[in-house]
Amino acid sequence: MSSQQSSLHASERTPLLSGAENSESGSVNQLNGAVDQPNDAASISESLEPTPSKKQKRWPTIIALTILCLAVLIACFGFALPSVIEEYAKEAVVFEPTNLSIDSFASFGVRARVQGTLYLDAKRVSNKATRDLGRFGTWIAREVQSGESEVNVYLPEYDNVLLGTATIPPVKVNIRNQHQNHVDILADLEPGDMDGVRRIVKNFMDHKLNELTVNAVATLPIRSGLIRLPKQTVSQVLQFQGNDVPTVPNAEIQKLRFAEYGMPGHPEGLKAMAVVSAMNDFPFSFDVPALSFEILLPDCYDDYLLFATAKTDVIHILPKQNITASVVGLVQQLPTSLTAACPGTKTSPLDSLVADYLAGKNTTVYIRGGEQEPDAPEWIGKLLHDMTLPFSLPGHPFDNLIKNFTLADVHVSLPDPLTGSRPKLSANVKVLVGLPPEVNVNMDVDRVRADADVFYKGDLLGKLDLSKWQKANATKVDSDLLVQSVVEEAPLEIKDDSVFAKVVQQLLFGKGAALSVRANVDVNTLTALGEFVVRGVPAQGDIFLKPMTGNFKMPEIKGMEVVDTSETSLTLQARVNVTNPTDYSASIPYCNVSMWVNDTRVGYAWMSSINIVPGPNNLVARAAWEVGAVGREWLSQFISGYNTTLTVKSHAESIPNFPDPKLEMTIPTPHMFGHFLRETTMHLLSSTATFVLMSPFAMYINDISASAFYNGSEIGTIDWDYPFAIEAGENVTPRLPVAWGSNALGTIRDALGGTLKLDANADVGVRIGQWQERICRRHPDLITGHCTSLAYKCCGTLYGLPRYCPWHDRIFPRSKFGQLGGHSTGHVSGTNQSIYKVKAATHSNLAYQIKMPAKTKSLNTQLRQKGLEMVQESIDPEFGQVYTISSTKPGITNSDLAYRLYYWGETAKSSASRRKAVEKATNRVNRIKAQEAASKMDSSESASE
Q1: Tens of pLDDT along 357-373?
Q2: Is residue 550 part of a domain?
Q3: What is the pTM of this model?
């Protein structure tokens, strides 16, 4: 048997496949997708040497069986692994983009450049079996290469609409776990269904894109090494939520300017130039070509009207950087349908845009693609033209739009009581509008109207209705616009009566009233865009109403006359000259106020059809005087020359259909016609007196009870009970009998050729028509009169204006007991008696005698009305009878007696000073006697000569 030698290079432990892996990473070519990675080919080497033995012949059989078994196993894995590898790839694949840019815009779509890192991460696979088999399969395959493929992107939430198609070039990548492949490819993107694109873009612009689901379906031809696998269809669903969903960048208009364009003096329209900036938060980089847009506004029927055209420059978009774009808009002649009011409303489609913009609110306009430049891709123009997107235009708060607001030639027409209308205001309104510096547009205004609210210290005073168009004009003042309008008969509605009363008080007694006006103004404008109405322009300004107290003068009353009488009232009419110190005028159909004296109403005053203008005014007023006890006292003081006052009050119906202004002011009563008594002439021989009276109107004097005093001593009285007529103007009364006092002749004789000072009181009954009243004329001051011969005349002056001689007439009626205002109180403190002493003796040289019983009776009549009486106390041989005034009511002390006694003669003193009074009276009598004796001596000497 022969032996056979064999040399074996392989055994059962020798691997069938052998090779070396030189690298665990690779890269994909940036432009063609070629893989730059070394590869070692796997080879099978075996050396079969013939042997002489039979046992060695079994090895080829074993090897063949082994290869066959491996082939069977590979075939089994070949049917099972693809589905596992697909599942593994879906979960493990990771792509991290580093840059996404648009390389160029083409006629078919967009050529985009995608750069990023692609790798598989086995940790992302949840199923262990899938993870292990996937790692094993990708380790064996090591790298794969895809052919050119298309990726269709669908949106399941939008009826599975095709968003777009991307054409991907061939790509070779290493698919082993955690091996990073740097990808740089150019992909052609072609838009899909335009309706779907518009829907998603609209939701994106409306901020309604809160989540987005994308289904990417790709058919890939794949090969691994020499093995070419059949085309694989890969479907991947991606869901974006929260911060993963892109949002609309906040666009900010940094610069905005308006100007006219066209030939000077013949503008064609309005040009708006703006610079818009926004932040790009995405890794996108591309250049947007110059594009044209149409700016639309909805009309009355929800159709879109062309408002303006806009054009952008080329926009350079860089990743993670702020983007700026220049936009120029052109507005030509506005269509009538854009400026005309919609049916059933008062606003036009343009109104809401302007009103919101001027109010600082965001306004919404609509943008649609316009006619693009010839070099722009057609699909861009079609895409933009088929989409109408809302765009929020930020408002411009015009806080200082109104710089100044003034009213001139103000005329207020108060309501007519017969028509029930409202007060109306007419004025020249001047408004200085501060135009923003970015607005350089010539503008004219020919009409305005408004709905204005008037406030005082923040409280609503009323509403000014300027709903009717008012004529206006506009003038450019530097960079501002002065608008002037003539407001005619604008109704004014008072909303708060208390606020109105405060304003009136400030005008009459304060320092004026500062009012603020807030209005929404409609302006009829004439611009380069044509004539149209801008409605709802907010306006606010301040108005200062000047007070009336600055140059106010007391009214001058003339031409007083009696127009009506009754038993209880007297109606007077007079012309009133009053000066209006303000620049305001008013028309008052009717006005009525009440007159008060010491909180007691004494009458009413009213005027009708009044037109008050700035400066002097001649008005006709009427007053109804309802005289009672208070009114009678006031009239007595007024006629006596006292400084009196009247309080004038408004009431609820002072001005019909107008709130009560709560007016109350006390004014000094003007001395309209001087003193009622001008002159007095006393006739000694006939014991009579005549008076010169000045009366503003005709009347009857029914009776007179008068007394004249010299140094406190009565020198004469008049008691006349027969009526006589007084005409309007100056009158001389009939001769009235005078009862001289005991020392009257001596007093008068001393005044012959000189002057005489007298006090006088009178109680006069007057009648005018049906009206009758008693007036007490009194005055405590002294008068001076010239006395000549046996008759003397007392000439008077009216408050320093000399009439005949430089002295004052003070002969006036004596008041009744109980009236306050005398010199001293004639009573004894702590008792209920007051001593009133009267000299009743007769001076034979004066041939004059006082009848005391008649005087006592007259005085007692007046005293009893006050609960008093005068009782004879004693008879003084020098001075005559002495009387005591006592209370007839028990329990009344002197402090309770509300009266004052005017002294009759110098002996009228209280009982505490009776002795001094007697001494003073005695000295007085002695002086008279000495004067009489000296006079007789002078007469004798003259006769002897």
Answers
A1: 766 777 788 888 888 88
A2: no
A3: 0.49
